[in-house]
Design goal:
Blueprint (H helix, E strand, L loop, with lengths): L2 E3 L1 H8 L5 H7 L4 E4 L1 H13 L4 H8 L2 E4 L3 H9 L8 H12 L6 E3 L3 H10 L3 E2 L8
Parallel strand pairs: 1-2, 1-4, 2-3, 4-5
Helix pairs in contact: 1-3, 5-6, 6-7
Length: 133
């Protein structure tokens, strides 16, 4: 299965959290994300004081990064998103929407993104006990 994975999930693969093990069981194929995730993950790790550069670099080699293209921006402007969806999250949503035919779903732990994806008819996954929406 192919998934789009957002920064909230990538962090759980780098820093052990409650959901990390369940998430590792789900990920077994190609993963896509926005190039934005490089910045979000780096900043989150810096704020946490984590010094996990090698792990981050290894993980990032297993991701296919999508550019923040004019096509993504135009799509974000056109699709109806709930007003609480933040700007950076909308880039992840737009990127996932753009490749929705190539993926089986989006892995995210962000509640606002989950709501927006549901409204767009895109399956999302937030593995805790491997639950699927």
């Amino acid at each position: 299965m192919n998934y789009y994975i957002d920064s909230s999930a990538i962090i759980k693969l780098i820093i052990k959290e409650e959901e990390s093990q369940a998430l590792l069981r789900v990920i077994n194929q190609k993963m896509f994300t926005s190039v934005l995730a490089k910045v979000e993950v780096a900043r989150t790790l810096a704020r946490s004081g984590a010094s996990i550069t090698k792990v981050r670099e290894q993980l990032m080699h297993h991701l296919d990064f999508l550019p923040i293209s004019e096509e993504v921006i135009n799509l974000i402007e056109e699709i109806p998103l709930p007003r609480q969806v933040r700007s950076l999250d909308s880039i992840h949503i737009g990127s996932a929407h753009l490749i929705s035919k190539l993926i089986d779903g989006v892995i995210t732990y962000d509640k606002d993104m989950q709501q927006a994806l549901t409204e767009l008819g895109i399956i999302w996954l937030a593995p805790k006990s491997t639950s699927l929406n």
